[in-house]
């Protein structure tokens, strides 16, 4: 799997030099590109889900923002699946527990 800079929703590859601006969106699906979910500093386990301690907290991670420390992440694209196997297993256990 090759690592690319791409849209987190559809996988469209960002091939331009530099970082996307606040108003830049994906040419394929229209999603904002300069979002926390696309940043190298995004980390669910960090405070405010950001490893960069200089950045101001952003509460809407999927909406374009003005973060000065944004850097578009390079990673392999994994398409979203409609069903989450862990979620389905948890739901099945709940159904067994409550007799549904």
What does it look like?
The protein is largely without helices or strands. The chain has one domain (1-100). It has one helix at 85-98; strands at residues 4-5, 74-75. The chain has a two-stranded antiparallel sheet. The chain is globular, with a radius of gyration of 17 Å. The model has no long low-confidence stretch (mean pLDDT 87).
Please state the structural category: little secondary structure
Beta-strand content estimate: under 5%
Low-confidence stretches: none
Number of helices: 1
Mean pLDDT: 87
Beginning-to-end CA distance, first to last residue: 41 Å
Question: Topology as H/E string?
Answer: EEH
Helix content: 10-25%
The main sheet comes to: 2 strands, antiparallel
Strand order of the largest sheet: 1-2
Number of domains: 1
Q: Total number of β-strand segments? A: 2
Q: Give the overall silhouette.
A: globular
The value of Rg in angstroms is 17 Å
Kindly list the characteristics that best describe this protein.
100 residues; little secondary structure; two-stranded antiparallel sheet; 1 helix; 4% strand
Task: Offer a quick outline of the entry.
With 100 residues, the chain is largely without helices or strands. Helix content is 14%, strand content 4%.
Describe the secondary structure blueprint for this structure.
Elements: E1 4-5, E2 74-75, H1 85-98
Antiparallel strand pairs: 1-2
């Amino acid at each position: 799997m090759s690592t690319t800079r791409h849209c987190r929703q559809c996988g469209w590859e960002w091939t331009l030099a530099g970082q996307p601006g606040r108003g830049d969106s994906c040419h394929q699906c229209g999603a904002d590109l300069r979002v926390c979910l696309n940043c190298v500093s995004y980390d669910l386990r960090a405070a405010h889900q950001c490893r960069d301690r200089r950045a101001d907290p952003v509460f809407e991670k999927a909406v374009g923002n003005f973060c000065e420390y944004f850097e578009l992440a390079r990673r392999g694209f994994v398409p979203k699946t409609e069903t989450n196997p862990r979620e389905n297993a948890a739901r099945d256990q709940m159904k067994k527990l409550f007799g549904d």
